[in-house]
Amino acid sequence: MENKYRMLEIKAPNIKHLFEPKSIAIIGASSNRNKIGYKVVDNIVASGYQGKIYPVNPKGGTILDSKVYTSIESIDDTIDLATICVPAKYVFDSLKSCAKKKTKFVSIITSGFSEIGNLEGEEELVNFARENGMRLLGPNIFGIFSAKAPVNATFGYKHIEPGSVAIVTQSGALGVAMIGKTATEGIGLSAIVSVGNKCDIDEADLIEYFITDDNTRVILLYIEGLKRGNRLTQVLEKATKIKPVIIIKSGRSKRGAMAAASHTGSLAGADNVFTDIISRQVGALRALSVQEALNWAKFLAIQKSLPVGENAVIVTNGGGIGVLATDACELYGVTLYDNREVLKEIFSPVTPSFGSTKNPVDITGQASNEIYEQALQAALDSPDIHSVIVLGCETAIFSADQLAAVVQRRYLDDKPDKPVVFSFFGGGEFEQGLFALKSKGVPIFSDVYEAASCLGALYKHYHNIINTDDELSELDDPEIDIKSIQTVIDEVRADNRRFLLVPEALRVMNAAGIPTPKSYVAKDLEEVIYYAEEVVKYPVVMKIVSKDIIHKSDAGGVALDLENRDELLDAYEAILASARKYKPDAKIEGVEIVRMINMNEAMETIIGARIDNTFGPTVMFGLGGIYVEVLKDVAFRAVPIKRSDAIEMIQQIRSYPLLLGVRGEEAKDIGGCIDIILRLSKIIQLCKDISDIEINPVLVFEQNQGVLAVDTRILLNP
Amino acid sequence: MENKYRMLEIKAPNIKHLFEPKSIAIIGASSNRNKIGYKVVDNIVASGYQGKIYPVNPKGGTILDSKVYTSIESIDDTIDLATICVPAKYVFDSLKSCAKKKTKFVSIITSGFSEIGNLEGEEELVNFARENGMRLLGPNIFGIFSAKAPVNATFGYKHIEPGSVAIVTQSGALGVAMIGKTATEGIGLSAIVSVGNKCDIDEADLIEYFITDDNTRVILLYIEGLKRGNRLTQVLEKATKIKPVIIIKSGRSKRGAMAAASHTGSLAGADNVFTDIISRQVGALRALSVQEALNWAKFLAIQKSLPVGENAVIVTNGGGIGVLATDACELYGVTLYDNREVLKEIFSPVTPSFGSTKNPVDITGQASNEIYEQALQAALDSPDIHSVIVLGCETAIFSADQLAAVVQRRYLDDKPDKPVVFSFFGGGEFEQGLFALKSKGVPIFSDVYEAASCLGALYKHYHNIINTDDELSELDDPEIDIKSIQTVIDEVRADNRRFLLVPEALRVMNAAGIPTPKSYVAKDLEEVIYYAEEVVKYPVVMKIVSKDIIHKSDAGGVALDLENRDELLDAYEAILASARKYKPDAKIEGVEIVRMINMNEAMETIIGARIDNTFGPTVMFGLGGIYVEVLKDVAFRAVPIKRSDAIEMIQQIRSYPLLLGVRGEEAKDIGGCIDIILRLSKIIQLCKDISDIEINPVLVFEQNQGVLAVDTRILLNP
Q: For chain B, how many structural domains are there in total?
């Protein structure tokens, strides 16, 4: 799929023409007001579109003063955007006609394709479009609105409020409803695009446009399933460093994922992989609910700039909501400023003795509107405070009107250069008086959790931005002998296998520069001593080597934990004697000398790389055995990864403290783990034949004592 | 504290007099409209209170047509409820006067006691009240409203809408604001009580009243810290089996807990202990935010009856919100009905071919109001469906008015006997049209997560109720030799110690019937053979026993893993020889023979019992070492516990699958763990001297192979 896409890009039209088309054909235009074909024309006209409008219908005539063309071919113009709303069976013919007119983009509103199992019909469309340099939106969508053109080529709301939030939605019904909802909430849209079955254009293509679109300050995606998660990852990696990207991904739960799959036909994928890659690795802001996403979008869109630091301060007239907000800040990753001296200096003039200048700053229920204003002003003026959470419970002292005037003066008029969120809680008159400010663009919420959640989203975006320059974020490029790995793969292919045998996997590990337990076959006593004392070093394990002896232990052919020359000599003698006794005619090649591993000194980890159905090449890390299997304590990332990604994925697992050493143990060799993750990342990216590598266990010794890939399983693609 | 409280109950007045007082004195009544002393009188009069009102102020005169008494003593009546709003320094004198009038309850609105560190002042009040059979509410509160009287003895809102939700709040500011908020949300109150510093009356006392109060259908608590968590636990245990109890507990986060402690002076306690005991063990419904709590309260209050079963069905016109709702149902513990045959039969008449009769039932965006009504009706009519989640996205086909009419007919008029929640999402007109139904009592939410959360709360309450008859919920009463344990404790006390030595702890374990590794001292070879072969059985460990040899290993006095008589005899000889060589003059008493434990067959767990600062006697269970220390994978319960509690706490830990056996291992002896938990529960409850017992590790062998308390640490109270 990746390749197909690249092939396409060579002759694909610039995505700008989709958002700023000079001409639009509406194929299936209708004069029947109840038909989609009418609504689309009506919406385009009503949106003040300045380009050419070409309604197409075999019946001809006019629709809303526009001449109706009886066929696409009869239009004497090239078409930037064609919107198709004819029945499914006529779509392919319409597409063929579009190609003749060198149409750049085709928005297929019509449903009845992959979403009902008609995969062939959809594939036919895509293949034809690719051959003819056209790009397709949909099918099964409500269309596209772009504030830049402006053009509303949807069959949804006639009026869409222009603004700075771009929405991409996989669900049509939710998308149309979101147009209404955003308008009510005072969220203007720079664009809303329905992607439906995503047969060609998907979120990644659209985000690429939104990155460069000056109108767009925030990108919001509603996703049910991904087709090309790897491309989305790459594009998001760029996008989140520039603009906040909010994602609602449904199908979080097992049953929800099943429902999403049956509803959209796209793979939901494991939710923990999605979270790790999309949220942790590339920094998209994942909202739980639609309401949360809209809260964030509105709040982020009105920010003039990023905060200049982490220090958030809560100012409250109620201790209770102050504590609730403190909890919420911890939940959403907002750091509360802690310098008591500075806080005291700032807030003691406005805080009564029974209040608190600690953060949360409690100016108490006896604070008048004047005190409130002074406290807010003090917080806004202090360079040590970088963001403010203003809380208010209704009290007898407060007047909603006067409080609203405070907010008007200090927030709307003064336009402070630091982020502020407000949460006011009380009865209808109180809240209504204050919530009227919402329509003026003040971020006010009834619940403190909603307010803190918005600030948390802003800080997550802030971290994306400030971490950009991280010196660790350079791509590491470990040296790997890809050619030797390919030789192994070729041999396995020649043998008609998809799995590698143990020695083959070992050769791959060696070529990858990943340490494995070294094994040496000694042919005589002299070699035994040499390997044990000079190469492997005590303590060692000795094993008989003979093709005729399979079960070495049964033959008395294994000696563990040999710690000195005496034990070594005794063991050599004993093993040879036992083997001869066990199978007198066995041909004995020698003994294998390997390192004796003390499991008390090593920690088992699992490091893997695989081609994920959704995200393509990925790496994973977890602590050994039960941690991964039972506790699902494992981290994923999409490749290529940076060193900082590898560090983050190790730090992310709950059992991470075990690697740092508990109960006075030494820290383990985390650097060795990072190195293996980076090496597997490179292999899974470059060796297209490999679908799966799992090293289980990777033994991790104490710091600077290295790691050992003990058992490696490698699978090839079919 | 527990004892003090009991002492009090002997002569304490019935809590009913607080909620249904026949006479109220307002001490500090004022004719100044800006004073609390005026507002309280005004509110009492305005609430239509039918009993006697006695304002008290040395100035005399009248307030709102009531005669003002110049002193409490001059009132010629007994007082059920006195409300004190004089300055802090006069409160104790007022209380003394109240005692003379045989006042039953005193509501101390005045602040300036423990919340600002004035612990002595508060203690003085409590001690005096107890000696005089009075009970105190507060101090530092806004008062009490009771719909039953009716009486509004607060200085908050004048009008409080009566209804069926009882609120107890530790935060005054939040409480007053909640009065306003609940009115706006259409939530009527049966009572709202401000408990403030909780010097005497606390949540438990009030819940006891609400359990029996017919007006109260739902109890809602806002808690920042607990003083007597054990009593709250006991009362909640009863209450949640009768009425839903919703709890907002702030101070969930570490920093939030600190803020709560400095703000209220009460202990927040560890949040995981709170969650385990209050939510899991006794079944209170813990809300994250105030908004969530109010949503639940409103929804639960309007339910006529419990659902008759678990089968929830989602009916939606949008696939997207259907998937979101599915996720939300999993999050909130709502079980989606799964019988596809039955669902198909019910819903295929109303579902187009491109929709889905699977759950979520997707009647598609093309569903008209009529189809919507039919689908809803079908869900309501089916006896196989026990609750319904109705979702709607705004579409061109829907009219908000008509949809509202459907809800009116099918929900408000028909009054279905199963729970229904609605979530409608769209623009202002659409939502406004539908949300108008809110004021009529229809549970409608904009976000599907809010809707599912309400149904989840109802189902949690449902589980409290249906699990009442559980046969496992009988209290187990393991046989324990408390007398012998007391003997040990007396010896330790006599020795002026607070910790038990190893042999003492072993004696406690034996008296408790908890198995420990058996140890036998053999004085000669004959006894060595007898213990090793007849009693302990191979493999065994042998250790030198001599008061003169402390470091047994250093003296060569330990032999592990002896598997047969040869090894036993060799070891005996070697140990004696080494010991003699190590310390020639040592007096050797013999050798100790104990069982050799193969750690591969056993799993380490930690089982403990302690007096928690907040909850009193508690038990804990976790898997050994790192699971508890690093992963914090541990469960707590308040004692006494039932067998079902012990089972649930074991099942609750994330590493529970390890006890069931992973990778083909045998299941471990979970019954043995349950037994120890129950025994420790009984000990910590009955042996008041013990503050702490931690058995670490308890080795758990395979099923029916038992458990062993290897190392036990016991501490006594100071």
A: 5
